[in-house]
């Protein structure tokens, strides 16, 4: 099996999709399994080991949901040809199973043997697969957080082609210009000579979820507020008020977030560039964590 074929197989996994709804369950499971291989565990991984870790990942990096289903990706990834079980006779991968069933039967899973062997002998391929999964499903601002959470260390391999949706190279400049080169939350606007420092163009509806490279789907944010936005620490309502999660706490929380709660962000210079309510609603439903603070 050629490396490019392996990448294509990972690229083509089926995830549940409905009007931009996020379903990162399979991607996070695959990243967990890649971390195990990198640490020398190429064998089957018990569901008992996967369940608590995958649930934590879905809480931290998945959409806000009342119920978290870690059994679904563990079973359904096999339908993509990327997962096998120690007891396949106990499972029909078209059906759903309870956590209790998987635990009581000591069901374990892993990537197919041929893929595992390629990933073991070629660390750069493993890195490329991990990077592909991240690029397809998560904004760059939180890639390292996810890698740290799954215990993966990757090295970018420019020699391997990873087909992903192309971005408009003018998106950043257009968004920064629309917001007059300052953070829409805190007004940060530092330059070193003529170079703009730590100011970024954030997608409100993530590029990975089909969000367009247009000003109405963009915010100019400093690097810190960009990351906090992508992690769901705050969001915007349709009136462009900043709403902070009631789960935010700790040192620096007031300085970076709480003091801005309920305040209006700095709007773009043209009304035609105002964030679309469709995209801010997507962020509220798919990224924002917890409830709104009262103060």
Q: How does this structure look, described?
A:
By secondary structure, the protein is of the alpha+beta class. It folds into 2 domains: 148 residues, no CATH class; 116 residues, no CATH class. It is built from 12 helices and 9 strands. Strands 1-3-2 form a 3-stranded antiparallel β-sheet. A two-stranded antiparallel ribbon has the order 4-5. It starts with a helix and ends in a 9-residue tail after the last helix. One of its GO terms (molecular function) is endonuclease activity.
Task: Provide a short characterization of the protein structure.
Helices cover 38% and strands 10% of the residues. It is of the alpha+beta class and 295 residues long.
Work out the strand percent. Answer: 5-15%
Task: Give the SSE string.
Answer: HHEHHEHEHHHHEEEEHEEHH
Query: Averaging pLDDT over every residue, what do you get?
Result: 93
Sequence of strands across the biggest β-sheet: 1-3-2
The tally of structural domains comes to 2
């Amino acid at each position: 099996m050629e490396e490019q074929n392996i990448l294509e197989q990972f690229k083509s996994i089926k995830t549940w999709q409905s009007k931009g709804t996020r379903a990162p369950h399979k991607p996070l499971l695959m990243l967990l399994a890649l971390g195990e291989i990198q640490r020398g565990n190429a064998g089957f991984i018990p569901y008992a080991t996967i369940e608590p870790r995958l649930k934590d990942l879905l809480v931290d990096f998945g959409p806000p949901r009342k119920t978290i289903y870690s059994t679904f990706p563990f079973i359904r990834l096999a339908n993509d040809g990327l997962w096998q079980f120690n007891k396949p006779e106990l499972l029909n991968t078209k059906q759903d199973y309870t956590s209790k069933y998987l635990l009581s039967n000591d069901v374990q899973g892993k990537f197919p043997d041929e893929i595992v062997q390629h990933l073991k002998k070629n660390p750069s391929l493993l890195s490329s697969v991990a990077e592909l999964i991240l690029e397809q499903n998560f904004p760059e601002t939180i890639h390292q957080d996810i890698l740290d959470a799954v215990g993966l260390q990757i090295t970018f391999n420019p020699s391997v082609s990873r087909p992903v949706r192309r971005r408009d190279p003018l998106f950043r400049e257009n968004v920064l210009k629309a917001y007059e080169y300052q953070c829409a939350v805190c007004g940060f606007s530092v330059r070193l000579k003529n170079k703009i420092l730590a100011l970024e163009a954030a997608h409100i509806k993530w590029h990975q979820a089909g969000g367009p490279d247009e000003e109405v789907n963009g915010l100019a944010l400093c690097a810190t507020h960009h990351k906090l936005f992508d992690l769901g620490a705050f969001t915007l309502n349709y009136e462009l008020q900043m709403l902070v999660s009631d789960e935010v706490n700790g040192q620096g929380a007031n300085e970076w977030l709480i003091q801005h709660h309920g305040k209006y962000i700095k709007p773009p210079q043209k009304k035609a560039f105002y964030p679309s309510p469709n995209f801010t609603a997507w962020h509220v439903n798919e990224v924002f964590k917890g409830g709104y603070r009262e103060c």
